[in-house]
Amino acid sequence: MNLKSPVPVGREYAATVSSHPLVSLRREVERLFDGFTRGFPALTDFGGNGGKLLPSIDVTETDKEIEITAELPGLEEKDVQINVADNVLTIRGEKKAEKEEKDKNYRLIERSYGSFERSLELPNGVNADAIRANIAKGVLKVTVPKPAPAQTKKIEVKSAA
Q1: Which domains occur in the chain, in start order?
Q2: Which H or E element spans position 50?
Q3: Full DSSP string of 115-132
Q4: Residue 27: what are its φ and ψ, rounded to 5°?
Q5: Dist. CA 78–CA 87, nearest whole Å
Q6: Could you state, in chain order, the average pLDDT of each consecutive group of 10 residues for the chain (161 residues)?
């Protein structure tokens, strides 16, 4: 199962230093692309997400629940699907391109279209039937009630007679 971390992680470079010129060139090109794509969420995951969009999310936690908030501009409830299986919550959907232009020549296209998917591991014992989700103004909020803490029960040991 391919889980995506809710915490953004940058490119990791090898700890060893290499004097080969191609290694140095590669690092410089990756640094250049990291700087260029900052602020463009649809471009920040080259290959690692299979070309899919990667919506920005926040995960907050209280004593009673976990709240996942995702930015999904331009999407409605019919465009988003949420599933829970094996303690993994998956948010997926698709932002479709509007194709009604007949005589338009594009000079710049910055808006992103396509499918997206984010998966988050939930704590053991979460009641999937109690999870709530709503979307308003392009912001999806998923509320996951925390499971009750496991209770410890002392079992008396008796001698076998």
Answers
A1: 19-51 (no CATH), 56-145 (2.60.40.790)
A2: none
A3: EEEEEEEPPTT--GGG-E
A4: -60, -40
A5: 24
A6: 44 49 78 62 46 79 92 88 92 78 68 82 89 94 89 90 72
Nearest to residue 54, comparing CAs of 3, 81, 92?
Answer: 92
> Pick from 92, 62, 80, 82: which is nearest to 131 by CA?
82
pTM over 0.85: no
Tell me which amino acid residue 70 is: A
**CB-based contacts of 91: which residues, under 8 Å, 6+ apart?**
55, 68, 70, 80, 81, 82, 116, 117, 118, 119, 140, 142
3 state SS of 77: helix
- DSSP label of 140: E
Centroid of chain to Cα 105: 34
Across the chain, which distance is largest between two alpha carbons, in Å?
Answer: 94
Tokens standing for 33?
């692309």
Closest CA to 132 of 68, 36, 48: 68
Question: How many C-beta neighbours within 10 Å does residue 4 have?
Answer: 16
Instruction: Give the list of residues 6+ apart from residue 24 with CB closer than 8 angstroms, or none.
Output: 18
